[in-house]
Design a protein that fits this description.
By secondary structure, the protein is of the alpha/beta class. Helix content is 37%, strand content 15%. A seven-stranded parallel β-sheet has the order 3-2-1-4-5-6-7. A six-stranded parallel β-sheet has the order 10-9-8-11-12-13, with helices on both faces. It comes from Cohnella luojiensis.
């Protein structure tokens, strides 16, 4: 079978949440024997090395330019979708069994004359209306706040338009899937967990008292999370012997001066590291102190895969299905957050039991290949999908 995957960003290297999800799915579909074509309308042109890496799984890549102009700010379509308007005209084959849209941003592809709407599946990375409203709460920049609020309203209207053209949905968030299913029971919708390498879990050593946060440092909700931790939890942690707070992520060359207002004693920042492996290995536990957001915070799942127990706010584990005190520890109050970190510091056996439990949960419930294969079979039950060995 043949599928077109439409992306708002080149999916490789898989160095942030959406790319991790999309790239993992591309590899799964290739393993299931699909012929894959990509249509990408991103901000930056991929390097030859990245194109070559993708060619191991993808037969053809179609690139189009992402273009923004000031007038788009007043358009009824969200700027994130409007800037990808070239997807309407991108030259693609017309004989795809399915067209997989990686998020609402690529909405313009639905106006491409070679796309059959009955073949379209939408991967819902976030409820974008909720997500942009959360970004508005996270930033103090007045212009950014206005932009996020406007995009939120536009995405709410766009989602209604999507329902007129798309009836097949794959949600990354179990919470958002259940909400959508209640509201739109006639749509073919399913919770599809993010891809997890089920045979490739790491084990923590619980030696160094390093608290780790990894996330895109240019995103206002991640900045807000780090700032909340530095302002409220970090001062309490400084009395713990050998404690360090390790922050890592891609800054997109934006200034990190927003960190300077806090006490950075025992804080180590890795700006746009080439690899996260050693950072995960150095950690004792992972914190996800998100205050605002939507969808699934893949940083929580990735930390568990890499052998770190997770302490999170309620927002940080939404949609994952993980259970408080069984797979993850949840705290929204700074003092409670601190006490839960200290408890794991003082009880490495509890830390190991927590991460073992969470990894077992992922093994049982996060089989991306099995769920995706089953969904496709439900759409085309007479077609035998042959897995590539």
């Amino acid at each position: 079978m043949k599928i077109l995957i439409v992306c708002s960003d080149f999916p490789y290297p898989a160095d942030h949440g959406a790319r991790v999800d999309t790239w993992g799915r591309i590899k799964v579909l290739a393993e299931l024997g699909w012929k894959i074509h990509l249509a990408v309308c991103g901000k930056e042109k991929p390097s030859e090395a990245d194109l070559e890496a993708v060619s191991a799984y993808v037969e053809q890549v179609k690139l189009c330019d992402r273009r923004s102009k000031l007038a788009d700010f007043m358009h009824a379509t969200p700027m994130q979708a409007r800037s990808r308007d070239e997807l309407r005209h991108v030259d693609i084959d017309g004989d795809y069994d399915y067209v997989l849209l990686e998020g609402d941003y690529v909405y313009p592809i639905l106006d491409n004359p070679k796309i059959r709407h009955d073949s379209v599946i939408l991967r819902v990375h976030n409820d974008e209306a909720v997500y942009f409203k959360a970004l508005a709460r996270s930033t103090n920049n007045v212009i950014h706040k206005l932009y996020y609020r406007m995009e939120s309203g536009k995405f709410a209207r766009l989602q209604k338009k999507m329902l007129e053209k798309v009836d097949k949905y794959l949600f990354i968030s179990n919470k958002e899937f259940e909400t959508f299913q209640r509201r739109h029971p006639s749509a073919q919708s399913l919770f599809l967990p993010p891809p997890v390498a089920l045979g490739n879990f790491s084990s923590g050593t619980f030696q160094r008292k390093n608290v780790v946060f990894i996330g895109s440092l240019f995103m206002p909700n991640n900045r807000e999370a780090i700032q909340w931790y530095l302002a409220n939890v970090h001062p309490l942690m400084l009395k713990e012997p050998d404690y360090k707070f390790i922050v890592a992520g891609n800054s997109r060359k934006m200034s990190l001066s927003w960190l300077e207002q806090y006490d950075l004693t025992n804080v180590i920042v890795h700006d746009t590291p080439k690899s996260l492996d050693d950072i995960y290995k150095s950690g004792y536990l992972f914190v996800n102190p998100m205050r605002n957001g939507a969808g699934v915070k893949l940083k929580t799942i990735e930390a568990i895969q890499n052998g770190l127990p997770v302490i999170s706010t309620s927002i940080g584990y939404e949609g994952t299905g993980l259970v408080d005190n069984e797979h993850i520890l949840i705290a929204d109050d700074p003092e409670v957050f601190y006490r839960k970190i200290k408890h794991l510091f003082d009880n490495p056996h509890s830390a190991k039991a927590l991460v073992d439990s969470s990894q077992n949960f992922l093994r049982k419930h996060y089989n991306h290949k099995e769920v995706l294969n089953g969904f496709i079979r439900s759409l085309t039950p007479i077609y035998p999908i042959k897995q590539v060995q």
